[in-house]
Amino acid sequence: MIRLTQNMEGDTGHVEIIQSSDINEPFGVGNHLNRKVWLVPLNSVESVPIPYLESLPLSGYLIGYLVHRNKDLAPTCAPSAFRYEDIPHETGAAPLMDWDDVKKLLAQKLTTSSMDLSSSNHRAGSPGDEDLGNKVLKKFKEYGMKTWTDEHFVKVQDPPASGYNRIVFKNGPEERPTGFLSYSASGTARGAVLYARYGEEKELKQLKDMNIDMNGRVMLVRAGRISFAEKVANAAKVNASAVLIYPDPADYSIGESSPLFGHVHMGSGDPYTPGFPSFNHTQFPPVQSSGLPNILAQTITAGMGLNILRQLGGRAQPDGWESINRLGDESDVITVEVNNVLTEKRINNVFGVIKGFVDADRYVVIGAQRDAWGPGFAASTVGTSVLVELARSISDMVENDGFKPRRSIVFASWSAGEYGSVGATEWLEGYLSSLSMKAFTYINLDGIVTGIYCHGCRLLVPMKLFNVNYDKDKSLLSQFGKNNWESTMMDSAAYPFLAFSGIPSVAFRFHSGSSDYPYFGTTLDTQQNLNSITASQVPQLAVRAGQFAGHIALRLVHDHLLQMDLKKYNQLIRSHVVQINARVKNYLPSAGLQKSGLLPKALTVQWLIMASGSYSRASSALAADIQNSDLEDIEMCRVINDRIMTVERNFLSPYVSPRDSPFRHILLGSGPHTLKALTSHLDSLKTANPDANAELFRNQFARATWTIQTCANSLAGDIWSLDNEI
């Protein structure tokens, strides 16, 4: 029941609005469309139903009623006569606080009081993980937030409970590494060792150019540069039988006996339920992700790796590999045995929400993984602490200082992050249809005080907040997209949000040191070691990182319009178009792919160029609409924001299966559907690679073209505003 007071023809009248249903709505779902609205003059004894208003949102009707009765009243976005305690999240009112005041308030509130969320053992699904999750949940409840949990039953690989993994090099002693790689193939492989540096594609190509046979070889590679999963996938492409990964002292100062832990799933989430959530009640036939490797993979210590490397014979390493050791020959035989066991674990994601006051069903998500292989102080403790501290600070701002965010903020504590963002991905898979329409940004807090990088979707680049300096004259904006950002993000929950779900995402790290943090994936990730890397500045860096993440989130829920520049993708699309066109038409002056007969002459890049032009014009048109928009028009702001939110989602290719290619984003994803893959496919056609297929390329090319055009159509808005030249 809501009472509304308004001056009617000089008299004070009272109107009472009654809804026929008091059913509580779940967060993000609007049941108000099914409610009957009654208009009741208080000086009348009769209630007058207004049936034709049954399908109208209550807040929209109230605003319209006020404007209709007296256009000289305060503007729509001014403080209205509605009481926030009566309609806490659908008033149409604007935030009553200036942005500079919001920033100052957050700076005053944010402290390091939540740094007590540490645990010596909180591997995913363990009692320690559950206990830590309950602590986070309790904190959220203390702050007055609406909370809930999300339970999943996931399959992961762990080391054998009875038994061991082992390696035997030549006639040497048996070694039993304690580290392991989850999702490796199981069994025994025997083959000659081949040193492949970091296992990157370009390095394997160097070995191929040296006419080295890699079939059946056991690859010895250094950790670093790319993910464990990418190393194993690259080795599998050249028919290697196994991969051994070690931390070279040149990259890792962790000693010669420290074990490494990780996973080799070329994807995220539970690989045994690809594309759908691992709820306990789901009954699906046996299936597995295409990103699972079919070869063995095992980590070994630095001491084990160096011992093998020193004994290798064969040819010298290629120039630039910075080692005097040999590559290995056919006599350098090693036996690798992996006996990891597949187990089912119950995990819980923990959530809390601060609801918005205008568009409560639109929200930014801030998340951090909670689990770790060992102490995980940098990997999870700092991020979880900052997550909880942000929740406390912003809740306090809303409760006690009058801050009223337009949109909601969801705080998420993920489990099973070390196995490949399992908790986050399962949540996305479970609620994708709703999240892709309502969640407009994800901010990742994992490892935020280690290393220096800032990665994410280009829509968030124009936010001036990225100009924050991590050093005297170096800003995070200057690091955006550098340092092999796709590989870095792939092990972050930000990547499935962006490339699987089409939700703009950002991940960042910064500290005052000169080197990256070497203890991820080890049991040495402790508070003491993090302090040694950061000159004991962990609390200060955590607050600084929390302010940065908080500023992004608060700006996105404070302003009338989302600060995202859709034109930032124009340059990226054009660069891909230029590369594809060059290869199709004139890869070489007299030997283009069409001239050489490798592609049919009927194939034209014109359609791709036109689709690119459509997107460019649509993004420019929306930019003009934003410039000409009336910020007092709440419905117009909502429509514009919804158009902005469709962009990342519509860059997801609808033509590929989440099982085969979960990261469906054609610009930032991975797989044969991406524009980057089209360029690589053309190169394969040029070199007569047996895996290249001209007909397949034409299909992929057509689908990518239409995906861009579809995104442009959606961005244009109304059906009569489409700019479709194809």
From TrEMBL:
Domain PA: 192-255
First-listed, main subcellular location of the protein, grouped into a coarse class: membrane
PTM info: Stearoylated.
Residue intervals of the Transferrin receptor-like dimerisation domain: 614-715
Ranges for domain Peptidase M28: 349-452
This protein's UniProt keywords: Cell membrane, Endocytosis, Glycoprotein, Lipoprotein, Membrane, Palmitate, Receptor
GO biological process, one term: transferrin transport
Protein's cellular compartments: Cell membrane; Melanosome
UniProt topology in membrane: Single-pass type II membrane protein
Example of a GO cellular component annotation carried by this entry: melanosome
Signal peptide boundaries: none
Molecular function, one GO term: transferrin receptor activity
Record flagged with keyword DNA damage: no
Xref: Gene3D superfamilies: 3.50.30.30, Transferrin receptor-like, dimerisation domain (1.20.930.40), Zn peptidases (3.40.630.10)
Alphabetical list of InterPro entries matching this protein: PA_dom_sf (IPR046450), PA_domain (IPR003137), Peptidase_M28 (IPR007484), Peptidase_M28B (IPR039373), TFR-like_dimer_dom (IPR007365), TFR-like_dimer_dom_sf (IPR036757)
Family membership noted in the UniProt record: Belongs to the peptidase M28 family. M28B subfamily.
PANTHER family: N-ACETYLATED-ALPHA-LINKED ACIDIC DIPEPTIDASE, TRANSFERRIN RECEPTOR PROTEIN 1
Function summary: Cellular uptake of iron occurs via receptor-mediated endocytosis of ligand-occupied transferrin receptor into specialized endosomes. Endosomal acidification leads to iron release. The apotransferrin-receptor complex is then recycled to the cell surface with a return to neutral pH and the concomitant loss of affinity of apotransferrin for its receptor. Transferrin receptor is necessary for development of erythrocytes and the nervous system. Acts as a lipid sensor that regulates mitochondrial fusion by regulating activation of the JNK pathway.
UniProt subunit comment: Homodimer; disulfide-linked.
Protein name: Transferrin receptor protein 1
